[in-house]
Amino acid sequence: MDIAHLALSSLVTLSFFFFTILPPSYCIDDGLFVDCGRTYDCGDIKNISFPFWGGNRSQYCGLPGFQLECHDGQYPIIRFEKLEFSVLDINTFLHTMTIARLDLLDIATCPQKFLNTTLDFTNFDYDPTKDQNLTLFYECPPRVNIPARNRFTCSIGVGGTDNYNAYFVDESLSSIQEELIVECNTNFKVPILRTAPINESEGGVPTLQKVLNKGFDVEYLRHLSLNCSACERSGGKCGSNFAQAFACYCRDQVQPYFCPSYGTHALFSSSHFPGLG
């Protein structure tokens, strides 16, 4: 028997082993790979993948802190500590997200809790080139002379009395704001977009509501973009493992960063059997 026939016989035997003896996962895509290939859709927010999860995307397809909940099929909600935010846009290429505080989407009703806006700074951060702070002052005494364009009112509960309130952009600090900090019962900060029409001449409630509804921009996990890109280029799907660290789900296995560049086709190549070719 010559070398060519011996190599061919070995190839047939090895092929039989791979396709009959090895577990089915080598022939069928792994469940994790399939699950994390699905995207998240809610309202106008569509085709969202890692690091976000929720809906038909299991938790292991994303990372902690990135859960999205679909509100009545209209828009996603994300939570940071005690606050909920509506998600207005997600740019997966730039790793940015536009969000707005849910408790301020109707400024005519006072929020139940007067809380400063906080993020999960492990995963998210503000973009100072796009965001600026707005301070809302609540329960201010009538004796404080608030300019008409900076006033607004809100009711506490159903049929409640209206409060005398004010708002100012932090970067336009003035003596009146210093007085409000002392005189008003409470205040808190809300990021807004620098492009928001806060300086419109009408001022008051219409302007304030328009500005708050536009939300503000945050950046997320830029340092993981290289990991996920490498995983996807190798044919994998990005996710996380039991330790909540990045994982690459391949068709037949889990890898820490990317899928192997070789497969069974490489094993059967002529370089493995010099007598063939």
Number of strands: 15
Taking pLDDT < 50 over at least 5 consecutive residues as the criterion, the unreliable ranges are 3-28, 262-277
Radius of gyration: 28 Å
Count of discrete alpha- or pi-helical segments spanning 4 or more residues = 6
**Helix-strand category:** alpha+beta
Overall shape: elongated
Q: Percent of residues in helical segments? A: 10-25%
Query: Biggest β-sheet: count, sense, barrel?
Result: 6 strands, antiparallel
Spatial strand arrangement across the major sheet:
3-4-5-6-12-7
Order of helices and strands: HHEEEEEEEEEEHEHEHEEEH
What distance lies between the first and last C-alpha atoms, to the nearest angstrom? Answer: 17 Å
Strand content: 25-35%
**pLDDT averaged over residues:** 80
Q: Could you characterize the architecture of this molecule?
A:
- It is a single chain.
- Helices cover 20% and strands 28% of the residues.
- The protein has helices spanning 3-20, 31-35, 175-183, 204-213, 225-233, 264-267; strands at 40-42, 45-48, 69-71, 75-80, 83-91, 96-101, 124-126, 131-138, 151-155, 162-169, 186-193, 216-220, 237-240, 246-249, 254-255.
- A hairpin with a 2-residue loop joins strand 1 and strand 2.
- The model is unreliable at 3-28 and 262-277 (pLDDT under 50).
